[in-house]
Write a structure and sequence with these properties.
Number of strands: 19
Strand order of the largest sheet: 6-7-13-11-12
Shape: globular
Largest sheet: 5 strands, antiparallel
Helix content: 25-40%
Oligomer: single chain
Number of domains: 3
Strand content: 25-35%
Order of helices and strands: HEEHEEEEEHEHEEEEHHEEHEHEEEHE
CATH topology of the largest domain: Uridine Diphospho-n-acetylenolpyruvylglucosamine Reductase, domain 3
CATH class of the largest domain: Alpha Beta
Length: 305
């Protein structure tokens, strides 16, 4: 039976706060993508948990959305239900910090610096949420979330609340069991990180320096998804794309940044198909010239076929 049966559609349409054919482009850092068949945003994780169980029972496809970074949504949109948790709570307990999944990593970096904690400065370069950071073991400047993560609390449809250790999450380079493994489809509710006591003003000074450097070397003020490719072992994806002479290459309004080869910029009105073509062009040219297989870091979701 199709998930679009009358009874399933009636259940979806009866959900409090549900929106149908909801545009998603503005909910991504790329500013690209078609609508969600159904969309629901909630300030409480428990609300989303009930929706996940409802989707599982009815075999309705769903997608969990954070800040919409590192994501390329198909022009035809996303099938089923798109869910977004916007909880931003946080608790500082000594050198441990618990943060809700909807809190932005950059915001958390400033919060812990204000609390006189060190070891999280790298997060000022991570544009997504805490939940998204756990989902793909986000990192910047050679540091990753797994270096400070104690545990994550989440919800597995059909099994209830769970607490996962970094080992349970199988955190790798921009990967986890949530993205690629046994925990796929689970919701991250909050994460606990372990930091060190230190000079908060020094932390802020370092973050300001890192931000300045980032602004000089990356197209931060443009519509982009962050790094398009994972760095291959011992090399940089941006260096390879630049060495292949691809900076400035475009498909319609999508263009490989002149500032950094590992960024694709939406100059206004770019489509997902145009971005996907650029991604494939870059991969093919880098493979042809250097025999290196670039692996996408950006995740393609929605109706691509």
């Amino acid at each position: 039976m199709s998930w679009r049966s009358a009874s399933k559609l009636a259940w979806l349409r009866g959900l409090p706060g549900i929106r149908e054919k909801e545009p998603l482009a503005s909910r991504t850092s790329f500013g690209i993508g078609g609508p969600a068949d159904f969309f629901l945003e909630a300030g409480r994780a428990e609300t989303i948990e009930k929706m996940l169980d409802g989707c599982r029972e009815r075999t309705i496809p769903y997608l969990l959305l954070g800040a919409g970074t590192n994501l390329l949504i198909a022009d035809a949109g996303i099938e089923g239900l798109v869910l977004r948790v916007v909880t931003r709570d946080h608790v500082v307990e000594g050198t441990r910090v618990r943060a809700a999944a909807g809190l932005k990593m950059m915001r958390l970096a400033r919060i812990v610096a204000d609390a006189g904690l060190r070891g999280f400065e790298f997060a000022i370069g991570v544009p997504g949420t805490v939940g998204g950071a756990v989902y793909q073991n986000a990192g910047c400047w050679g540091k990753e979330l797994r270096e400070v993560l104690v545990e994550a609390c989440g919800y597995m449809p059909g099994s209830g609340r769970k607490t996962w250790s970094p080992a349970d999450l199988k955190l790798g380079y921009r990967s986890s069991a949530l993205r690629d493994g046994a925990l796929k489809g689970a919701l991250v509710v909050e994460a606990t990180i372990q930091l060190q006591r230190g000079d908060g003003e020094e932390a802020k000074s370092l973050m300001a320096k890192l931000t300045r450097e980032r602004n000089e070397t990356q197209p931060i003020k443009t519509k982009n998804c962050g790094s398009v490719f994972k760095n291959p072992p011992g090399d940089s994806a941006g260096r390879l794309v630049q060495a292949a002479g691809l900076k400035g290459t475009r498909e319609g309004a999508a263009v490989i940044s002149e500032l950094h080869g590992n960024f694709i910029v939406n100059e206004g009105g770019a489509t997902a198909v145009q971005v996907a073509r650029l991604v494939e062009r870059a991969r093919a040219e880098v493979k042809r010239r250097f025999n290196v297989d670039l692996e996408p870091e950006v995740e393609l979701v929605g109706r691509w076929r």
